[in-house]
Design a protein that fits this description.
Enolase-like, domain 1; racemase and epimerase activity, acting on amino acids and derivatives; 30% helix; alpha/beta; metal ion binding; membrane; TIM Barrel; 3-stranded antiparallel β-sheet; Enolase-like_C_sf; 8-stranded parallel β-sheet; 14 strands; globular
Length: 343
């Protein structure tokens, strides 16, 4: 961070919980969500205000309320507003993500330069994001795929459950015959013949399987000869996990799991060093939460940043969708100057 951002003059303006409705329902093997609660925070140096957002990792038991309390608590620690120090003060998760991203946003304003430049990344360009097809009957998923393809989405991420998945993908393929397909089992294939499932899905044009087995059962993937690459999601939470993921060919980097852009950058570097491909993913979130991850799209083999597109409403300055291409918004990290405190 800049010298100014490292001083003790920084202070937390506040951390709060906000609720956003989902457009319809977002359904995976663990259940359905009709809304998402996010934690947002703001940090100031007295002249500029940096903002960040995090979505709690619900399968770890995180809640937005607990994350807001954690941010308020850690703000009183010495050097809490130094990003590297923050990695020691808070564990990976949504609280650290929100605060880390707020600090990046503040630094960009202090420097008068965009975050991508400060982070040594390339300037963001429109990207083709995957669009999620929620778990449902084959017929409903096929119609959802048809509609998504009609909106310009060329890559569909299909949620599976471990039962009837081949029928679901066959129906989706019929509904969107020219779409690229990846699937996400969300740990639901325990007890299945993973190699046989992979072979059947490959024949239907699937190109990637995400997290087929529970994270605790990664050994079940060892020594398998699979027709498709396997991507770790729940098995890859943060930088500390990467070295042990020899059974995988790719990892899904999500800022909420990692604990912010700072950790995610380190994860991307480590993934490449270990010969792993990269998906840049997200939780359900507004564009304030997606914008930092968008900067990493240039490092990714797959981009899955539809979290805000699945909501019924978003923030002003949101990322914009044009013919299936996601364009950067203006509400975070652009080095814009925001004088004074937010309303």
């Amino acid at each position: 961070m800049t010298a100014a951002a490292q001083t003790t003059s920084l202070r937390l303006l506040g951390a709060k919980v906000e609720r956003f409705p989902v457009a319809g329902a977002f359904t995976i093997s663990r259940g359905a969500k009709t809304f998402v609660d996010v934690v947002t925070c703001a940090v100031t140096d007295g002249s500029y205000v940096g903002r960040g957002e995090g979505t709690p990792i619900y399968y770890h038991g995180e809640t937005a309320q607990d994350c807001a309390a954690a941010i308020a608590r850690v703000a009183n620690e010495p050097d809490a507003f130094h990003r590297e120090r923050l990695r020691a003060l808070l564990p990976p998760g949504a609280a650290r993500n929100a605060l880390d991203c707020a600090l990046w946003d503040l630094e960009a304003q202090q420097a008068g330069a965009p975050v991508w430049e400060l982070a040594g990344l390339t300037a963001p360009e429109p990207v083709r994001t995957a669009f999620t097809i929620s778990l449902d009957t084959p017929q409903v998923m096929a119609e959802a795929a048809r509609r998504a393809r009609g909106r310009g989405f060329a890559l569909l991420k299909c949620k599976l459950t471990g039962e009837g998945d081949r029928e679901r993908i066959a129906a989706i393929r019929a509904g969107a015959p020219d779409a690229a397909l990846i699937v996400d089992a969300n740990e639901s294939w325990a007890g299945l013949d993973v190699a046989a499932e992979a072979s059947a899905l490959a024949a239907l044009g699937v190109s990637l399987i995400e997290q087929p087995l529970p994270a605790a059962d990664d050994s079940g993937l060892a020594n398998l000869s699979l027709s498709l690459p396997i991507c770790a999601d729940e098995s890859c939470q943060s930088l500390a996990d990467i070295a042990r993921l020899g059974a995988y060919q790719a990892i899904n980097i999500k800022l909420d799991k990692a604990g912010g852009l700072t950790e995610a950058l380190a994860m991307a570097q480590a993934a490449r060093a270990h010969g792993l491909k990269i998906m840049i993913g997200c939780m359900l979130a507004t564009s304030l939460g997606i914008a930092p991850a968008f900067l990493l799209a240039g490092l990714a083999d797959w981009v899955d940043l539809d979290g805000a597109l699945l909501l019924a409403e978003d923030r002003s300055g949101a990322l914009e969708l044009v013919d299936g291409m996601l364009h950067p918004g203006t509400l975070w990290g652009a080095g814009r100057i925001i004088k004074g405190l937010p309303a």
